[in-house]
Amino acid sequence: MSAVEKAFHGLRHMIATGRLGPGERIPPESDLCEELGVSRGPLREAVRMLSALGVVEPRHGSGTYVSQLRPEDVIRSLLLTFELLPLPGLLEIYEIRRVLEAHVAAKAAARRSAEEVETLFSLIEEMEATDDPTKASELDHRFHAEIARIGGNPTLASLLSVFRARSRQYQVFTLPEGPEMRQKSDADHRLMATGIADRDPGAAAGAAEAHVAQTERWLRAFMPPVEEEGVPGTAAG
Amino acid sequence: MSAVEKAFHGLRHMIATGRLGPGERIPPESDLCEELGVSRGPLREAVRMLSALGVVEPRHGSGTYVSQLRPEDVIRSLLLTFELLPLPGLLEIYEIRRVLEAHVAAKAAARRSAEEVETLFSLIEEMEATDDPTKASELDHRFHAEIARIGGNPTLASLLSVFRARSRQYQVFTLPEGPEMRQKSDADHRLMATGIADRDPGAAAGAAEAHVAQTERWLRAFMPPVEEEGVPGTAAG
DNA sequence: TCCCCAAAGTCGTCTGATGACTTTTGCATT
DNA sequence: AATGCAAAAGTCATCAGACGACTTTGGGGA
């Protein structure tokens, strides 16, 4: 086993066995090097790996801390890498999104409060009022995130958030057909919000699934290649 | 921006823009250090981060290669960290599993071939025939993985595989109540396989959802703490 | 033609030193 | 006594150089 693996599994073991708990500071590098029998280089690489996976968080000058180890923290670590996936795989992700967005919409319909319905409709109105595709995309994200939050499962909300971020890269709303798409999209949103407001899980789920399926069809039809990451488009926010 | 971040985002950018494609070998460390303006330490840490996330794969003596960038590769990177999550989060994951296992079972029912049905039932018979909880757990895993494979969405299969691996750590079959549970579990499996054999998506989905829900109830009831990772139990395989 | 080995290329590890940042400590001032 | 500030300690971040381990390549000999 290489030194990096030794350090990685050693640290993971300390966390798995509870010797290092969530939020706790791990021993300084020099101590860990001695205990794990590796030098600082490999140890730091192992810590970086755990950091990339959302398990620990180094703070310059202070120490390295174990994260809260919530599933949503770990899932969020997929964000930066999902953006690298080529298009074919994205379509597989859409199938999962369809199922899960429908599920959270149904759960949201069963759990929503009056204030939450209020929030959803005000987001829709903002969306319909703006002409800026960037702002529209950002509001779209917040609308779906709010429904996922109401659904009551933070892990699921985090997972869907990662999936949506990958989709948003393609910025379909900035295409020539954008306005038309947005009109259809707005109508879908109203259907979803209405289903939730009516406490009708079936209606909400159906509307959500149809909405995702529609987005998928658009993407399939145009398949615009993403030429740049971080390009100032609808990916903002 | 720190040197590690500079290197990490620099590399990610090279992949995102297509300068480095799937399967391709990235430039040697010394070249990258010069281009990115960092020394070897931080560069190696950045490469390790991408490696932990399933984006690149270093090969000693040969070079570092970009992975195939399939979603299932990236999702698999969650395997080692999901095992660290405390129990409360696990229950949120069960809700997702319930929805997705039902979905793949339905899709499997629609897509299955005669040979695949054969495989499922032979796995069930092996499962029913063995007394070894470890072997039973391994066969259980293969049974569910096979259904997910038949479902036709590798990304979804990979995601479910990660979720199941986390659950298997608890080894409910080794409890005193184990044999009883296994009997119920076997019956569930037959229901699922029958639904798939009959090309009845509704039946298959219902059986799958009930099966997952049952497992979740067992876990909720006993909540045995996991004291060791890699303990020789049902986690084998 | 085939086999073997030497050399080059590349990643892996160690060591030592220095810089940057945070937290703590202790002292001087109010 | 309370407060504020500066020094010091602790910790992570980075650089540089050297050597080891492994893989691949290519040439030389059988």
UniProtKB/TrEMBL annotation, chains A, B:
Q: Which InterPro entries match?
A: GntR_C (IPR011711), TF_FadR/GntR_C (IPR008920), Tscrpt_reg_HTH_GntR (IPR000524), WH-like_DNA-bd_sf (IPR036388), WH_DNA-bd_sf (IPR036390)
Q: Keyword set for this entry?
A: DNA-binding, Transcription, Transcription regulation
The cross-references to Pfam families, in alphabetical order and at most eight, read: FCD (PF07729), GntR (PF00392)
**Is Lipoprotein a UniProt keyword of this protein?**
no
Domain of life where this protein originates: Bacteria
GO MF, any single term? DNA-binding transcription factor activity
* Entry keyword annotation includes Ligase: no
- The chain positions of domain HTH gntR-type read 1-69
Write the protein's name. Answer: FadR family transcriptional regulator
Species of origin reads: Streptomyces coryli
